[in-house]
What does this fold into?
Amino acid sequence: MSYCEDCKFFPLFQVAWVTRSGDSDLEVPIAIRPTSETVMYPYFSKWIRGHRDLPLKLNQWCNVVRWEFSNPTPFIRSREFLWQEGHTAFVTKEEADTEVLEVLELYRRLYEEYLVVPVVKGKKSEMEKFAGGLYTTSVEAFIPNTGRGVQGATSHCLGQNFAKMFDINFEDEKGEKAMVWQNSWAYSTRTIWVMVMTHGDDRGLVLPPKVAAIQVIVVHVPYKDADIKEILNACSATVKALCDLACSMLLSKKEMHVFKLQKLGDEFIEALSQNKLILAPWCDEEEVEKDVKTKTKGETGAAKTLCSPFDQPELPEGTLCFASGKPAKKWTYWGRSY
It folds into this structure.
């Protein structure tokens, strides 16, 4: 089974092909995997026979290879990286929709409760969604020092697109043939970089207490004529007191630097130059999104949609899109991204 021949959603140029083994040419080239859909889903069609086989939920950690990409950056965008990915199948779309948001909330908790990195949960635009998916949700982080957004993790509803392609059918409770509804979701070692960039500084690495191997170091400092035993006892008492405290009591939460505006223009460009995240009313039209990218393209990249937050600010009746002047449908985060 050839990776690109069987899945129209993943173009040939993204795949690395092994054509030789030692001194011998391979009769059939081997594709080094960029993602798992075409590896897993042929087996989904074999494993799933009836509604009692559902839901099917698989999770794995593996390395992924992306052969061609732009702007390589250590941790954030590299040739090979480690990630966690989940692939699931359900009887109904409602079940799939529910899991999409449940998984997205787990990713939010990972970032905010463990890494102390604030993120926004939202839905990707049609232009930015996963190829072949029905819709994509994500948690978006923002790096104040660089003024760029980072897609922290994604949770996709694949709909029935892959079920049609790989013939993943089942017999429902009525004995009739039906197609499954699928999801996939993932986050990668990019998470480490987001944490480092959020908390680190010129003096070195800073790790939040819940993921740090050591949260506090107590050092005893003897001085002339001091009672060393008493100092050690005091240090021991301090260590015990700190061990009795929950790590959350030692945390301080950082907030995102967000600029809210109503119109595309100098203010938008200025906010980008000041490394700000921009929240603006949008008409949700792809051509307008493309136009914004074109108008803001510069040496450091163009602005694009990051996500439309689920927690939407009030959108008064008559509010116009900041870029087109048409009636706005939603508030959306814009900015440069990695």
User: Anything to note?
Assistant: Confidence is low (pLDDT under 50) at residues 1-7, 247-254.
